[in-house]
Amino acid sequence: MTGYLTPTTKVRVSDLKAKKARSEAWAMLTAYDYSTARVFAEAGIECLLVGDSAANVVFGYETTNKVSLDEMAYLGAAVVRGAGNALVVVDLPFGTYEASDEQCVKSATELIHRTGAHMVKLEGGERMAPRISALKNAGLAVCAHVGFTPQSVDNLGGFKVQGRDAAAGQLRADTEAVVEAGADMVVFEMVPAELAASITETCPIPTIGIGAGGGTDAQVLVWHDMADLPAGGRRPKFVRQFGEVGAELRNAAAAFKQAVHEGTFPAAEHSF
């Protein structure tokens, strides 16, 4: 592995916007606990996302819509304790922000208070612009999420690329709406690479791609996908494995079992 640079000071939203101005790419990974957050921070990952994907990879729920505010708060607090200088973003779970601006601000402030995270993320473009404005008026940093929005998978008719052909105009309108509402960053999920790159060129805030090609300002992946730790379900086309953590973990567990069965662990040096 080549060397990596761990940030020596806290990563702020202003730092990520400065990277965009310099055309300097940066990385985001999901994290759900203290230990992995600490490893990713030491690897120099600038931004950690406590994603509602925890519903699938941590809790084993079928959809992201099952995870609760309490569950996100417990995970988020653990990540913040291990995050070092990385900026931590936490997802607002389904059902905690859609009803009204008041519900959204209440949920977000509780999540920030309980976790110590630096920013909240919510899904939706034009329809969520009022919520984003309310959050900004409450003094919170906000990451928007447009394109394919997993919390709306049933409404979208399944896991489908968004923004193709005539639908490109809606993605542009969604981006403009969240920018005007005050969003600090925006995630593009499962959108055509050419469209994401075109919007990024003129978008004044950092864009983060997941299944959106290489033309966005940053990239994010669920770490279980990135490191090949199988968590059930299908693996998206846009995922690349950068390691084989699942195989290593299985091998380690099998070696531990064998040592116990053979009576070679614990040995004298492991005993008091």
From TrEMBL:
One of its GO terms (molecular function) is methyltransferase activity. Pathway: Cofactor biosynthesis; (R)-pantothenate biosynthesis; (R)-pantoate from 3-methyl-2-oxobutanoate: step 1/2. Binds 1 Mg(2+) ion per subunit. It is an enzyme of class 2 (transferase). The active site is at residue 189. Mg(2+) binds at residues 52, 91, 123. Its cofactor is Mg(2+). Its EC number is 2.1.2.11. GO terms for cellular component: cytoplasm. CDD domains: KPHMT-like (cd06557). It comes from the Bacteria. GO terms for biological process: methylation; pantothenate biosynthetic process. It is found in: Cytoplasm. Gene3D superfamilies: Phosphoenolpyruvate-binding domains. The keyword Magnesium applies. 3-methyl-2-oxobutanoate binds at residues 52-53, 91, 121. Transmembrane segments: none annotated. It catalyses: (6R)-5,10-methylene-5,6,7,8-tetrahydrofolate + 3-methyl-2-oxobutanoate + H2O = 2-dehydropantoate + (6S)-5,6,7,8-tetrahydrofolate. Catalyzes the reversible reaction in which hydroxymethyl group from 5,10-methylenetetrahydrofolate is transferred onto alpha-ketoisovalerate to form ketopantoate. Belongs to the PanB family. HAMAP family: PanB (MF_00156). Homodecamer; pentamer of dimers. This is 3-methyl-2-oxobutanoate hydroxymethyltransferase. It comes from Corynebacterium qintianiae. The lineage of its organism: Bacteria, Bacillati, Actinomycetota, Actinomycetes, Mycobacteriales. The gene is panB.
